[in-house]
Amino acid sequence: MLCNGCGHNLTNEMGANCPNCGTIKPLQQGPDVNQGYQQQNINQNQGYYNPPQPPYSPYGGYQAPHPAKGKASASLALGICSLVFAGPFLGLILGIIGLVMASMARREGFIGGIQTGGFVCSLIGTILGGIMTVVCAPLLCAGTLWSWMW
Q1: What is the distance between the alpha carbons of residues 27 and 35, in angstroms, rounded to a whole number?
Q2: Number of CB atoms found within 10 A of residue 32's CB
Q3: Sign of CA dihedral 118, 124, 127, 130
Q4: How many Å apart are CA 126 and CA 129, to the nearest integer?
Q5: Host H or E run for residue 122
Q6: pLDDT digits 0-9 by tens, 8-60
Q7: What's the pTM value of the predicted model, to 2 decimals?
Q8: Closest residue by Cα to residue 23 from 13, 35, 38
Q9: Distance of alpha carbon 133 from alpha carbon 119, whole angstroms
Q10: How far is residue 71's CA from residue 78's CA, in Å, rounded to a whole number?
């Protein structure tokens, strides 16, 4: 590449300016990289031009969600439902199912806030549901026996 101001050969020179005259170096114009690719595509496809693929994005592409994220989300939903419906039987059942889903998500490699929250909510819901079942089941049985006898 030659300097536009003085004609000095700038191929091996470093820096932004010409060392002889101080003129700013022009941008280096290299051979067209896609020219051979375009010509090759025109020849291979009988005259139809296929443009080259766009460059990759510096931000990365779409990443698919982890396969066990659904199980972790289900465990969180079941854990919250087991807390809301912490009755004698429903809270216990929903909590146990939520614990199973959270452990399945952890076993498949998804460890995150959703899985941990689902496990904790399901555990608390299971404990509350178990306590309600132990306390209310005898009362329900006594009430049905009492009404049956009279």
Answers
A1: 20
A2: 9
A3: negative
A4: 5
A5: helix 113-149
A6: 676 666 666 777 776 766 555 555 444 444 444 444 545 556 667 767 666 76
A7: 0.54
A8: 13
A9: 20
A10: 10
